[in-house]
Each structure stands twice: as structure tokens, then as C-alpha cells.
Specification:
Length: about 130
């Protein structure tokens, strides 16, 4: 379903969808308040293991530098589900490309490399 939409609107580029999700996320960052205490949230970078199945083989890929909203005073984190779905789709795409080209799967993917952005692009200067 997701890839269908990507094909429809972006010529099959899920990377473009990710960039759009990131842009929307960036635009929202400044006015994002913690749902718990109401204070402004910050962006920190996290890593997550994405699991996917290739035939009956389970593949794990560590995705690093995933931006998330965090409230430091109360240590709450807000997940960006749209972004996570886009990342999973992109990991799937990378794996399919590896299969096609008979290349080994990457153990690790840097999210910032994936979208061609740096940390400074995501974290607004105060
Ligand atoms: Zn809070």
C-alpha cells in the first residue's frame, strides 16, 4: 500500500517520501510540546533494529541516527509513526536491491545518510 502510493506520487522513490516526512517533522518541531508536562520538546537521535523477513531468513538491520522528540525534564519520547513506517519501507527497498544485485545485506544504515541530511538540518537553532 505504502509503496503503491510512493510509485504513484514520486516515481517509486520512498527516499523522497522519507524526506517529506522529515520535512513535515521539522516544520512541526518548534511548536511541539510535551503531552505530559507541556514543555518544549527537543530532538535527540536514536538507533533502532529493524527486522524484516527474506524468504524464511530473518534479517536485522540497525538503523542509526533516527530523530525523535524527547522531553528531557520528564524523559518522555514521542514516536513519529509515519517516519518509522517510511524507514521500514526504505530498509525493505535496500534489502530487495541487495538481493537483486547479489550483494550482502548491510548490518547498519545511517538514517541521515539515507536522506542526505545532517543533524544540523534537523535540529532547529534556538
Ligand atoms: Zn515533559
Amino acid at each position: 500500500m505504502f509503496e503503491l502510493k510512493a510509485n504513484l506520487f514520486f516515481g517509486g522513490s520512498t527516499a523522497e517520501l522519507i524526506r517529506q516526512a522529515v520535512q513535515a517533522y521539522k516544520d512541526r518541531v518548534k511548536e511541539e510540546d510535551c503531552p505530559h508536562c507541556g514543555r518544549k520538546m527537543k530532538i535527540d537521535f536514536f538507533e533502532e533494529v529493524i527486522y524484516t523477513n527474506v524468504g524464511d531468513q530473518r534479517v536485522e538491520i540497525l538503523v542509526t541516527n533516527i530523530p525523535k522528540h524527547v522531553c528531557h525534564p520528564c524523559e518522555r519520547m514521542v514516536e513519529n509513526l509515519k517516519l518509522m513506517v517510511a524507514i521500514e519501507e526504505e530498509v525493505d527497498r535496500v534489502i530487495r536491491a541487495c538481493l537483486k544485485n547479489r550483494e550482502p545485506f548491510p548490518k547498519q544504515i545511517d538514517f541521515l545518510d539515507l536522506i542526505g541530511m545532517g543533524k544540523a538540518d534537523l535540529v532547529p537553532t534556538q
